[in-house]
Amino acid sequence: MLVKKCFLIQISALIPIMLLPVHPLGAETASESERLQKLERAVEQLQKRNADLEQEVSSLKKQAASTAEVAAKMKTKVFYDGKSYVEKAVVEEEKPPVFVVPRASEFKLVLGGYIQVNFEDGDVSAFEGRFGQTALKDRFRLRRARINLTGDFAENFDFKVEGDFENSDGISSNRTAFSGTDIFVNWHQFAEANVKVGQWKAPFGLEQLTPDPSLIIIERSLPTGAITPERQIGVQLWGKPFANIWPDGKDLLTYYAGIFNGNGRNTTVNDNNNFMYVGRLESTLFKSKMWGQESSLKLGADVLNSRDDAGVNISQSLNLLVNADGSLSPFVLPGADERTAWSVDAWLKLGPFDLIGEYLEEYVNGRTVNGVPPGFADFTTNGYYITAAYFLIPKKLQAAVQWQDLNPGQKGNDGIHSITGGLNYYIHGDDLKLMVDYIHTWSDFREANPEFGDDQLDEVIGRVQVMF
After folding, report:
1. Exposure of 319 by Cβ count < 10 A (0-12 exposed, 13-18 middle, 19+ buried)?
2. Nearest in space to 199 (alpha carbons), one of 111, 265, 113
3. 3 state SS of 131
4. Smallest Cα–Cα separation from 207: which of 230, 184, 189?
5. How deeply is 435 buried, as exposed, middle or buried, from its count of CB atoms within 10 A (0-12, 13-18, 19+)?
6. In this structure, are residues 227 and 383 in contact, taking their beta carbons and an 8 Å threshold?
7. Phi, psi values for residue 36, rounded to 5°
8. Which comes out higher in pLDDT, residue 91 or 54?
9. Which range has the worst mean pLDDT, 6-15, 206-215, 273-282?
10. What pLDDT does 19 receive?
11. Mean pLDDT of 178-203
């Protein structure tokens, strides 16, 4: 209606102008000059009317918007007037926004986390050696529920504080209910030599160091859990030597060298005056685009040495001690030991195809301390896994298969082997992901000793993952 009104006024103003007679320019008279002046005044009046109309339309629009805004804030509430209940429309007061600001001098502060919920059915965690006397029942499991805070300072420091609400895993008493995971400060003034202090995963093992939300197979392999040292408290020097002298080849070499207490996370005391020494080298030999997707080849190698006293759990992530029925349980040392471990790994990515392999080996040798023998025989544990994955639908549906093998090395025929087939559906990348795995496991010990039960075990695991 406002547009129509403007149009009619403009037409009514132009009609008398259009009725003015037209004469040749060369025959201009005094009367014609007056007509031109009238024409100019008419145009000026028209422009003024247009300006007034535009102002009126703008005012009406603001009034309409204000009315709509008030209407949007109106909320029906019920009032009691002493006799009856009456509904009235009232304006709902807008709450002030909630915001968080850094307490110190951080210029970057990020709050995040993720939730992983598992459904586990069949021979639950049999691939981890949980069968026989250590068998678990079918269950829903809050696998991880973590919240973290990361930040950067202008003084070249970054930090991370993370805690986990996961359910007890039945392995370690210091991992029940809420507990700290990564808690560290990192000085990154020089890309070639970062200094990190606090608690995080000791740099040993490709699969162990792969972030939990990025795993292709739902759970890490038994060799990784039995041999890698998991999270530790300590200090680490790490960096990329070519970061500045050859920026395009900065990932050609990355090194990590750390000194840790060696007796697990969230433990404020060391078991003795010795430390755990861990080192890792990584090399990305090539990184390019293939089939429109990233392709690369990364190689890695690790080494570890630790001298532990009696009472230390040397298999903090998973199980290692072989029981009488061939099952596994946490290995808490009955006496002192010295451990040396090493591993090598490779990750080949060719567009939608991934091929990952890793071999790990650990030597556990007893030590006599103050005349007290170790109370166990020396043994060597080794294992490996090979994982292959392919995107059936680019960046959406991924099929994966894994073969894994662990030789605990404590009894004859105590090997445990598993093959896993799985599907991963990336609804929104790793931020929102559905996973399902079928795992078939068999035990060499049970095959050689059938009186302990079936040597063939099967499990189905499903997972819902949300990152925020």
Report:
1. buried
2. 265
3. coil
4. 230
5. buried
6. yes
7. -65, -40
8. 54
9. 6-15
10. 47
11. 96
Nearest residue to 145 via CA among 165, 119, 169:
165
The pTM (predicted TM-score) of the whole model is 0.78
Q: Given this model, what pLDDT does residue 169 score? A: 59
Give the whole-angstrom CA distance, residue 114 versus residue 92.
35
How far apart are the C-alpha atoms of 447 and 464, rounded to whole Å? 35
Euclidean distance between the first and the last CA atom of the chain, given in angstroms as a whole number: 49
Residue 80's pLDDT band (cuts 50, 70, 90): low
In tens, the pLDDT along 340-361 reads: 999 999 999 999 999 999 999 9
The Cα–Cα gap between 392 and 50 comes to 63
Q: Which residues contact 153 (CB under 8 A, 6 or more apart)?
A: 104, 105, 106, 107, 159
- Tell me which amino acid residue 150 is: T
* One-letter amino acid of 132: G
Which residues are bridge partners to 289 per DSSP? Answer: 294
- Distance, in Å, from the CA atom of 232 to the CA atom of 267, rounded to the nearest integer, reads 9
> 147: which residues sit within 8 A by CB, 6+ positions away?
111, 112, 113, 162, 163, 165
Q: 204, 304 in Cβ contact below 8 A? A: yes
How confident is the model at residue 81, as a pLDDT? 60
Query: DSSP characters for 253-308?
Result: -EEEEEEE-SS-TT--S-SSS--EEEEEEEEEEEEEEETTEEEEEEEEEEEEEEEE
State both tokens at 311.
């009472």
Taking the C-alpha atoms of residue 363 and residue 22, their distance in angstroms, rounded to an integer, is 111
pLDDT at position 17: 47
Which of 110, 64, 57, 118 has its CA nearest to residue 433? 118
Task: State percent of the chain over pLDDT 90.
Answer: 64
Query: What beta strand segments (E) does 62-204 contain?
Result: 74-80, 85-91, 106-122, 139-153, 157-164, 179-187, 194-201
Where residue 27 falls among pLDDT bands split at 50, 70, 90?
A: very low
Contacts of 198 (CB under 8 A, 6+ apart): 182, 183, 184, 185, 233
Rounded Cα–Cα distance for residues 32 and 21 (Å):
9
The predicted model gives 390-410 an average pLDDT of 97
